Automatic annotation (TrEMBL):
One of its GO terms (molecular function) is NAD+ synthase activity. HAMAP family: NadE_ammonia_dep. Residues 14-254 form the NAD/GMP synthase domain. Its EC number is 6.3.1.5. Gene3D superfamilies: HUPs. This is NH(3)-dependent NAD(+) synthetase. The gene is nadE. GO terms for cellular component: cytoplasm. One of its GO terms (biological process) is NAD+ biosynthetic process.
Amino acid sequence: MVVKALHTITEKDVDEIVDFIRGVVKRTGCKGIVMGVSGGLDSAVTAKLCADAIGPDNVLGIFMPSVLTPREDRDHTEEMSRSWNIGYEVVNVQPAIEAFTKTLASDVRAPLERGNISARCRMIVLYNRAKKLNYLVAGTSNRSEYMMGYFTKFGDGAYDIGPIIDLYKTQVWQVAEIIGVPKKVIEKVPTAGLWEGQTDEEEMGITYRHLDIILNGMSFGLSDEQIAKDAAIDISKVSEIRCTVSKMGHKRMQAYRPDICFNDP
């Protein structure tokens, strides 16, 4: 068995995602969707899909900058929000980040730890706004990030609906082309903005193109040897990715609880 090529996204696939979003909002009785917008690909695609599903008047994008946020990101979020007519707000989360960092000073030593605090501060903003408006919170994680655990638990990993969670990053690029995300956003280097100059691919040690080939092969039950041979990727990198996916499994599941039924009939 060889590695099966990733499914190429079509307009029909996009329509199914849009229908899914519309159906969830209707089923829950909520009035709309609120989400964080960063100026990056994933949030842009998610925002446009939500706007197409329930109308731009029912979508609110909140840009939540910190001291590490480039001005370019704000410019891009403003341009897309204006072009797509979705609601747009700016909430500066830097004071909240500083307050938590000061309180937890002895436990916050690395950029990653500060990044987790930033993500959780943004989650608080989104759910506070969602509660006031009776909106759902939309997440912007893709399948590649999800499988690698490349998100913050109860931060950007906290949401009510994940429109692109089943799409690999390379497929998100395809969706972006179909729905008309600006080229300059599509071509931006993916980054979580955890520290100055940080990029997703450098931090993970692999390009999304190669990562998605490996993850896709794993989903079909192929061995490391098969994936490495068929995709022309070093087997040590395949094994490393498999190990990471396994180690990060706890981030993809609900809390552990005892299998004891005291109160069930």
